[in-house]
Amino acid sequence: LVELSLEFLGDPEALLELPLAVDHRGRLSKGPHYQVNDDERLLLEEHPNAPPLADPRWANQLGSTVSPLCPRLPARRVLGLIRESTPMSEKLPRFFVWVLEHREEIEADPEAKGILGHTELFPDRMGTLRSPRQLILDATLPDLGMGWGVSSEVPKELVLWLREVYRLDEGTVRRVVDRIIEAHREAVDATDVERSAELVGLLGQFL
What we know:
Strand order of the largest sheet: 1-2
Distance between the termini: 64 Å
Structural class: mainly alpha
Helix content: 40-55%
Order of helices and strands: HEEHHHHHHEEHHH
Strand content: under 5%
Number of helices: 10
Radius of gyration: 23 Å
């Protein structure tokens, strides 16, 4: 039907005026309906502001015949929607998988990269959800009782990529520096020379 309509109308954009798109509930309506993968569908299907999502079987059959009718949802828009409405914790593993699968697109798109950098969906060691720019992603650094390191729930491959792409925000750097200075005072009071030297070296990494 879509191909016949396209042949008759001659303009793919004109197809948007006809009820030719099949949504994720199997209903026929006007497009566009966005093509998403299984992880994106899980993360977005209950979102109040999600755009119309295409039925996956219909989208696969349609292929690239008429992209205006069934365009792919770009990573920047997926991230924007996810940031608006934090997914339930049981969906976070799927979110981590999705980020890994789309890391090249995210890194190449300043807008997507910026959104992810401020998305608080990555648990630290205390279980608090933080953004990549609020987490200490270097596993070799001591914790100092702040729980600032990333949780083991986040895949190591994802942690390594986040570490390459993001730097700490200024607020987090200030908190880390203040805690290191406090720990250094404690080491001096305890005449722990080795600990004091370690903390001075650590401080240098953040200044």
